Amino acid sequence: MTQRLCEGRVVIVTGAGRGIGRQYALMLAAHGARVIVNDLGGARDGTPDQAEEQPAEAVVREIRAAGGEAVANLESCSDWKAAGRLVEQAVDTFGRLDALVNNAGILRDRMLTNMTEAEWDAVINVHLKGTFAPTHHAANHWKNRHKAGETDLAARIINTTSVSGVYGNIGQSNYGAAKAGIAAMTIIAARELQRYGITVNAISPHAYTRMTADLGNPSPEDIERRDPRWIAPVVVWLASRHSSAVTARVIEAGGGHLGITQGWHPGPSAPQVADPAQAGAILTDLVARAQPNMGMNGRPSPI
Known about the structure:
With 303 residues, this protein is an alpha/beta fold. The chain folds into two domains: 10-261, 3-Layer(aba) Sandwich (Rossmann fold), CATH 3.40.50.720; 267-303, no CATH class. It is 41% helix and 14% strand. The chain has nine helices and eight strands. The protein has helices at 19-30, 55-65, 80-94, 117-147, 163-168, 173-193, 220-225, 232-239, 276-289; strands at residues 10-14, 34-38, 69-73, 99-101, 155-160, 198-206, 250-254, 257-261. Helix 1 (19-30) packs parallel to helix 2 (55-65) and helix 4 packs parallel to helix 6. It is globular, with a radius of gyration of 20 Å. The chain starts with 9 loop residues before the first strand and ends in a 14-residue tail after the last helix.
């Protein structure tokens, strides 16, 4: 390691008990950050599991064994008051907060004709509200510090989106909608919070974890390319002071590459008309001239 990028910084990581979040917490600590490891514990679909030790506590124990500083938080980041307590815990324990990594998530995949209201609500709640609630409380903490005269905050928010939301994946209307919402919220929040010295970006990770354990039959080479450890360096750099020039971006990481995902752009257009028949003819022509939507593989999709 040539440089500890987050020396002395205090970082919250939600959903940090396993998978990608665990790698974030471990690498942040290795780079000198003091980490609040948030994880409610539970199965991939968010239901309780029977683990003897909470995953957040296990990660804290691992960080401390390596000489780092960390504390566990076992509350739900999608609970409004709990999200406020999460930010308070960081400040009470370590005296400050410098970065928030919104990573917590669950899956309840189903074709939309079979999806229940509960399956929709659970995924939207954990992903979308579970990103908004900690962000709201952290942003207000930093806004108050800025108003008190601390103009060099170098505060960071790092969200988690997905190609399922950016490009659309069959069987994930709940998850994809939440992730698309997070990508949009990232850009909006970046524009709102820039005045306070807060950057906001989102990671679109490509990784094999328990969240993707039943998707396909990956080769050893695929598993290596999609190891969560390839994503953590991006998050560590984004959480550092060195990333001040990057904000309002969705960054693809893992799967063998780093890239910037570009958002919606205006396409072909024409003057508005009052006649529906005319509108139909114009729209048919505009669609024929428009660029196709991208698929999950990053290539044009037939629909």
